[in-house]
Amino acid sequence: MRQTDLTLREIVDQLAANESSYPSCLLANELGEVAKETKDQIAVLALCTLLRSGDKRMQYAAYGHLTTSLADQPGVKDAVKEFEMDPENSELLRNFHELNPI
């Protein structure tokens, strides 16, 4: 569910600038919600980019959206596989799967 009335462009701009009155994890979730609602490829690619961001909160939100409602979108499978193969992400993945059992 969306929590702001920001447009996709505003979300992406605020994430890129690292300046916002909203927490980055909320913006990442908003991005996921927009991608889920619209299947907009810019939103999907931006989520894939967040997986490489190094910010664990944004990675967690992006991973959740990409592995559920957006798993069939172009480029997602490769981005998720790359993320899951990186040993630095093992703790985040373990936590995610503990909280979100299949």
Protein structure class: mainly alpha
Order of helices and strands: HHHHHH
Largest sheet: none
- The N- and C-terminal alpha carbons lie at a distance of 21 Å
Find the count of extended strands (DSSP E, 2+ residues).
0
Oligomer: single chain
Principal-axes shape call: globular
What is the CA-based Rg, rounded?
13 Å
| Number of spatially distinct domains | 1
Q: If you average the pLDDT, what whole number results?
A: 93
Sum this structure up briefly:
The protein is an all-alpha fold and 102 residues long. It is 65% helix and 0% strand.
What does this structure look like?
This protein is mainly alpha-helical. It has helices at residues 8-17, 24-38, 41-50, 56-66, 76-85, 90-99. It has one domain. Helix 2 (24-38) packs antiparallel against helix 3 (41-50), helix 2 (24-38) packs parallel to helix 4 (56-66) and helix 3 crosses helix 4. The two termini are 21 Å apart. The model has no long low-confidence stretch (mean pLDDT 93).
SSE arrangement:
Layout: H1 8-17, H2 24-38, H3 41-50, H4 56-66, H5 76-85, H6 90-99
Characteristics of this structure?
about 100 residues; mainly alpha
